[in-house]
Specification:
Largest sheet: 3 strands, parallel
Helix content: 25-40%
Number of helices: 2
Oligomer: single chain
Strand content: 25-35%
Radius of gyration: 12 Å
């Protein structure tokens, strides 16, 4: 159902760099009232320190607002 309550899923793949798109996507999901929880699927060999820290910070902000599971 469009606009209905759901669990959002976000994929993070490949090298983790300081890419604002991932942080912005996580922030959008945090503001989406219909997304009641979030599954973040991470398939990465690693990445840059700044990218990892930015991803960690964005996940922390998201987890303050709704349940988050990373796989």
């Amino acid at each position: 159902l469009p606009g209905g309550a759901h669990v959002a899923r976000l994929s993070v793949e490949g090298f983790i760099s300081d890419d604002r798109r991932v942080a912005e996507a996580l922030d959008r999901v945090a503001r989406d009232a219909a997304a009641r929880a979030v599954i973040v699927a991470i398939d990465s060999p690693g990445g840059a320190v700044a990218g990892g820290e930015a991803l960690h910070a964005a996940l922390g902000r998201l987890a303050e607002r709704k349940p988050v599971v990373t796989v």
